[in-house]
Specification:
- It comes from Comamonas aquatica.
- One of its GO terms (molecular function) is transmembrane transporter activity.
- It holds the Pfam family BSH_CusB.
- The chain has about 500 residues and is of the alpha+beta class.
- The protein is built from six helices and 34 strands.
- The strands form eight sheets. Strands 4, 6, 21, 22, 23, 24 and 25 form a seven-stranded antiparallel beta sheet that branches. It has a six-stranded antiparallel β-barrel with strand order 7-16-19-18-17-20. A five-stranded mixed β-barrel has the order 30-31-32-34-33.
- α3 (about 165-180) packs antiparallel against α4.
Length: about 500
Amino acid sequence: MNTSSRNILAGLTLVAAGIAVGWGVPQWRAGHLSGSPAANITVASAPTERKVLYWYDPMVPTQKFDKPGKSPYMDMPLMPKYADEDTQDSTGLSVSAQAVQALGLRTAEVLQGKIGADVNVVGTVLLNDRDVSIVQARTAGFVERVYARAAGDVIAAGAPLADLLLPEWIAAQREFLSVRAMGDAPLTAAARQRLLLLGMPQALIAQVERTGEPKGLYTVTTPQGGLVAELMVRQGMTVSAGESLARVNGLATVWIEAAVPEAQSGPLQVGQTAQVRLAAFPGEVLQARIVSILPEANRDTRTVRVRLEMANPGQRLKAGMSGQIALKGNEQPALLVPSEAVIRTGKRALAYVVDGPGKFHPVEVQVGAEVGDQLVVNGGLAAGQQVVASAQFLIDSEASLRGVLPAGAAASAPASPHNGHGTSSPPAAATNAFVVRGVIEEMSPTELTLAHEAVPALQWPAMTMGFKLSSPQLAEGLSVRQQVRFTFSKQGEGYVITAIEKVQP
């Protein structure tokens, strides 16, 4: 064997040895390391394919589809509902304990309470405008004298105001005396009736009959006592028939008027009594009675004017005085929840009932009046139930994404396929309305710029953007930096606010 052959043989031997060593080392390591932890690790098998029950549009959760695709209602893909998802049914929602803690979720109890209790408001004393007398000239004449009176004076009933010279009355009185002298009874009666028709008082006619002399100077007096509110007569002036000479306001009774919050005005009734405490008479309780509830509420303050009447013995009560009014309301039982626990979309009101730790379900409720920070519930909830009082908007968004329906809402069956979608029309309850919270950054009569929270249904993060107003009246009573809860929907190419209300920070 020559040198070249030996070299080739040696190379082949080395290669074979290398292969043997390369195979033997792993085998040795596998044999010697079989007891190590690494050797006990098993490779997980490929995940089993999840079963899809149906597809749905989060904004129209009542409508189900048997194939994927785009929603016929919103420009977004349909979402699958898997069989292995949360065990909750179509009306329940489960939230992890970590999520509950992160959201700072608070709950409140539905309480059985009473509404219509005492209403305490501030009132102002006013003159009784139903107790007013107007003094007028009954015929044309001249002012001969004006007694020492001025606007603001308090006078008694029958107090003289002015002496008037009345030429027409003088002529009529002379005619009456001439007819009477003739002794014709029917003519005398007719002449006397003419004096009455000219506005001559019975007392003056009797005086003319008694004296047999005409009396052309007539003293005008006040028909009642009270405050001289206006005095229009002056010495030397000429007056015409029906001209006003003075206005006198009676003081036997006074009004006290208060602005009652609209939410507390419902139980009040005319004739109801109230207690009044005036600052001018500390420790003294006066009685008043509601005589009128004005039919128009103030749009800016959302209050109703209530007018009460009080006796004024000794004329102690002065117009302009102020005091506290305690109105006795008729108490009625009612279910009460915090106002913030109810989500109002403009079409319905929702509350989320607590079923257990981290478990909730939406309930459609019928709401009534708002009393302070409490809301009257007329239906949908029962006393003792726990409802979500914070972060319910985020829970509501999650419920919409999962297709959770309010209790009592009927779920539709899967729609028949048509290009991957059901062909049935959207249900009447389906809308593209969204309810979120925000802070007003800028405002105009037609548009609001709001820094709002995230809108998961639209895949929007928290941001600041402008919204058109469906009506300029929606901006009434709002201000910059105010926290609000608003409902908006897509109309055309933009988003329009359809409802908005103030919320507590």
